[in-house]
């Protein structure tokens, strides 16, 4: 079928014939209908990319047909044609979503110009949609384990609400993916998603970054600049690594959350903003509050719905689908055929120790795609290019086998907590009191490390 399809709906045979001949001569595939009911049937089966639709017809008139077409397809391109067009008709048609309105008798040159513009705009819209889907595929959440299904279920429940969300988890586990999934499922999905990495911006610049500034307000302020809150108006602002934000900036963020108003540095004009704030951190904010480094009132403003992203070690069954996903994603990004991997190589990757970082797994797959010797990634490639030790129960005797400091810290903390819980016969309150740790923190760590009575005996033997 042609990719350039046009439907002409008009109760005048002469209009249908003349317009149909012109369009076919220009290379379009054309179908015609003599009334609204027939036109709606043709639209459903033909799925044209543009419709010429008469305003005044017996039975269902053009305005009603336009309304129903837009209900079928919100992106439909409909050009109204009328023998007695008025300003009121034009306004009504535009409000109902018409692309344009033409007067009879139709001017051939104007029809051709309109067609060129309409199809150029449609091509641009389709290209933008393809780009959006390509970008979103980079942030797709992949997994089939119960913990990931539970995570996706919580995201789905909270996405459609205006609630603020605090996303916690270790570095590289996918907190940004969660934030983007919430935005994508919200009523703000078509509006901006603006990300700020609070840890990457010097403390003296974070306020300017968030709230904007006026020209001359400080050295280097060579012009007025909108901050991230303004840029995210009607959309979503993602404050990543919120635990690293200065106390001064925290106070201003709290005021914005309370009042919905920002004031640029050096300015005195309040600017109203409508922003949904999502925040993420790899820190224990309760401990930061106790140490005086994080505002408790801001914590409770942000932590309306808490979401914890599980590390990769707690969802080992997801390694295989993640590897397949990354292989396809990397091939699409680089315009190459998708690389394949043998079942043995997949099992080898699944059996390796991954402390919790999905990002590390993705980088490993990219290394295999680039450096593997053949078109099929095999076990030899994994052995040669990955070089990680097999997964094993974490215990004090294995700590010196850790290859990175991060791995060591995770393994040491897990072994320490297991030992203390065992010493207090798994009485969480007594263990927390002995460790001088809030009981809620200890529960989170037990959940994070998947600690159970059964694992304690094996891991500490």
Overview of the molecule:
With 461 residues, this protein is an alpha/beta fold. It has four domains: 5-134, Response regulator (Rossmann fold), CATH 3.40.50; 146-310, P-loop containing nucleotide triphosphate hydrolases (Rossmann fold); 313-385, Helicase, Ruva Protein, domain 3; 396-459, Homeodomain-like (Arc Repressor Mutant, subunit A), CATH 1.10.10.60. Helix content is 49%, strand content 12%. The chain contains 20 helices and 14 strands. The strands form four sheets. It has a five-stranded parallel beta sheet, with helices on both faces. A five-stranded parallel beta sheet has the order 7-8-11-6-12. A two-stranded antiparallel sheet has the order 9-10. Helix 3 links the parallel strand 3 (50-54) and strand 4. Helix 2 runs parallel beside helix 3 (62-72), helix 6 crosses helix 7 and helix 18 packs across helix 19. The longest helix is centred in the N-terminal third of the chain and has 31 residues, at 108-138. It is globular. Mean pLDDT is 85; it is low at 392-397 and 454-461.
């Amino acid at each position: 079928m042609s990719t350039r399809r046009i439907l002409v709906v008009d109760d005048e045979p002469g209009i249908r014939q003349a317009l149909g001949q012109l369009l076919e001569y220009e290379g379009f595939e054309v179908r015609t209908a003599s009334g609204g009911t027939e036109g709606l049937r043709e639209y459903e089966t033909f799925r044209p990319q543009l419709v010429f639709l008469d305003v005044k017809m017996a039975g269902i008139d053009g305005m009603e047909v336009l309304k129903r077409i837009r209900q079928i397809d919100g992106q439909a391109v409909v050009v109204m044609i009328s023998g007695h067009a008025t300003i009121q008709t034009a306004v009504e048609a535009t409000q109902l979503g018409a692309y344009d309105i033409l007067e009879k008798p139709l001017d051939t040159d104007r029809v051709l110009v309109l067609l060129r513009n309409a199809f150029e705009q449609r091509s641009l819209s389709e290209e933008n949609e393809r780009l959006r889907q390509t970008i979103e595929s980079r942030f797709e959440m992949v997994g089939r384990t119960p913990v990931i299904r539970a995570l996706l279920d919580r995201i789905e429940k909270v996405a459609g609400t205006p609630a603020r969300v605090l996303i916690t988890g270790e570095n590289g586990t996918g907190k940004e993916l969660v934030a983007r999934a919430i935005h994508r499922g919200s009523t703000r999905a078509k509006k901006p998603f603006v990300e700020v990495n609070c840890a990457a911006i010097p403390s003296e610049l974070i306020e300017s970054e968030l709230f904007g500034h006026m020209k001359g307000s400080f050295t280097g302020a060579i012009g007025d600049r909108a901050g991230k809150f303004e840029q995210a108006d009607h959309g979503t602002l993602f404050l990543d690594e919120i635990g690293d934000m200065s106390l001064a900036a925290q106070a201003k963020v709290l005021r914005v959350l309370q009042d919905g108003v920002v004031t640029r540095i050096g300015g005195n004009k309040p600017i109203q903003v409508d922003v949904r704030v999502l925040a993420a951190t790899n820190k224990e904010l309760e401990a930061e509050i106790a140490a005086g480094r994080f505002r408790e009132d801001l914590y409770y403003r942000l932590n309306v719905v808490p979401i914890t992203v599980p590390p990769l070690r707690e969802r080992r069954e997801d390694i295989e689908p993640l590897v397949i996903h990354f292989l396809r994603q990397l091939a699409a990004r680089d315009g190459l055929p998708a690389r394949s991997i043998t079942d043995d190589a997949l099992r080898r990757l699944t059996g390796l120790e991954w402390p919790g970082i999905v990002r590390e797994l993705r980088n490993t797959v990219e290394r295999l795609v680039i450096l593997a010797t053949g078109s099929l990634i095999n076990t030899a490639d994994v052995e040669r290019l990955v070089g990680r030790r097999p997964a094993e129960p974490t215990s004090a005797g294995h700590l010196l086998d850790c290859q990175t400091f991060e791995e060591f810290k995770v393994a040491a903390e897990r072994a320490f907590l297991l030992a203390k819980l065992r010493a207090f016969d798994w009485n969480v309150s007594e263990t927390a009191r002995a460790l001088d740790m809030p009981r809620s923190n200890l529960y989170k760590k037990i959940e994070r490390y998947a600690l159970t009575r059964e694992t304690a005996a094996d891991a500490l033997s």
